[in-house]
Design goal:
mainly alpha; single chain; 2 helices
Length: 63
């Protein structure tokens, strides 16, 4: 996950380490659309997971 976030951020910010306490929107400038359309699918592919049925997952945060 951290590697993919770092790769996504390189397109508009200079390289720096992404850390667990970093807040995605407030500190890193990623909005929900970035996460939904680019980051989440890439992380799923890299980890061999599927996003099918993600909307019905009770463990995801509701917006």
């Amino acid at each position: 996950m951290y590697e993919q976030l770092q790769e996504e951020l390189l397109s508009y910010q200079k390289s720096f380490p992404v850390r667990a306490p970093d807040r995605l929107e407030e500190e890193l400038g990623l909005d929900g659309d970035d996460l939904d359309m680019s980051v989440a699918p890439a992380i799923a592919r890299r980890s061999g997971r599927s996003l099918e049925g993600a909307q019905s997952n009770p463990h995801t945060a509701a917006s």
